[in-house]
Amino acid sequence: MSRNGGLLEPLLATDVVIGELDELQFELGEGPSSDAAATSSPVLEADLAGLEAGQRWPAFAAAGADRGFRGVFAFPVTAGAARLGVLTIYRREPGPLQSDQVADALVFADAIFVLALDHRQGVSAELGEVIETAFTARRAEVHQAAGRLASQQRISVTDALARLRAHAYSSGMSLHTVAIDVMADRLQLDSDLAAGGAPPRTAPNWPPTNGRSHPHATDNGQDEKEQEED
Amino acid sequence: MIASDRRVREVFIELSDTLVDDFDIIEFLDRLAAHCSELLGVSACGILLADHHGALNLVAASSEEARMVELTQVQNSEGPCMDAFRTGHPVQVADLREARIRWPRFTGAAVDAGYLSVQALPMRLRSTVLGAVNLFSQSTGQLDTDTITLGQALADAATIGIVHQRALARQEIVTEQLQTALNSRILIEQAKGFLSHSIDIGVDEAFALMRSYARANNRRLTDVADDIVQARLRLPRPTG
């Protein structure tokens, strides 16, 4: 699901039934995906037919279990204030994910985060490079630089991260080096032109709303769904 | 043993009082880091959590943050914290200058930063290790057994903070809480960077400013950080 402003909207699903489940969470306004988005924390539900799930999401838990889905695992596509969406994995068997599956899903969510940033700036990198960036993108200096750039250019932290990443990609520098240079004021990123050859941005948001009230034009995240078939 | 029994009791009571519903994990770990250096008589303390990439991330520190970040990041290739995290056992180095062969990069960075001895205590939860507490001293020498025991109790308190109120925490809960802590720290770094430009202060000073604002206004540190980066809250530049 992607965040369009504050609303979580289904964006992409691996099949029709999964799309319906996402749609259902969206329509009911309840479910693991919206909780994951609201808390910026994974929500791992091992059994929709269980008591806990029934109490937490009465309508969605029943509807999901009726369609034959028992496990729902929602991972936020998020880094601090840059909240782009949620990756949700559905499973027909009840039971928790193995810890290596959880770790893989978290790495996928990080990779989707980078892909969504790149999408904003017209960057299309190879998967290996995206995974490498997803790793670097957790470092403290990168987020300090994103915050600094957001204040300098009066853009959202999401757009600031996208610009840092696009600059790193087009200049061949590492994201970490770009971040350190921004913090040291050795590097000024052009506030009018997006790096990487994308067209100028025409709709800067200021102040950047967290969008709980209404969607806005430059905050289209990207997201994916995976269905796990056993 | 450096701290008095009475002071130790006070600290544990204060920490358990912090563990109310809706507590802020970074605020909790930040207090814990400060108490660690005070009670254990070390120069600096950092609390490191492992992420899903297997990297150690600094989530709280007693002081000198930029240096601590650097000393954490070096340890993703080598160092006492990585060893404590991998083995689940404490690592103690009484004189860093004698550890140059074992960890050349880490030793160089730590000695440059003015530290001569280091301890790393694992944050264990049953069979898993969530991270490590890193203690730095400007003098050489071992910590005595009582101090190490107290240090491990503080490291365990940090683990309890993460699995908060779920004594028999399932793996799902641990994942959720760990990710919350790591993500909260990212938000705080973003807010530090934001303030470094908007009111022209250093990132370490920015952290102290957010923390004192959060405490004075009885707000969660991460909520304050979020309001700052969303431009909903402007903090005044500290005077003097």
UniProtKB/TrEMBL annotation, chain B:
SMART domains noted in UniProt: ANTAR, GAF
Gene Ontology molecular function terms on file: kinase activity; RNA binding
InterPro entries: ANTAR, CheY-like_superfamily, GAF, GAF-like_dom_sf, GAF_ANTAR, WH-like_DNA-bd_sf
Any Pfam family matching the protein: ANTAR
Key words, A-Z: Kinase, Transcription, Transcription regulation, Transferase
Domain ANTAR, residue spans: 168-229
Protein name (database record): GAF domain-containing protein
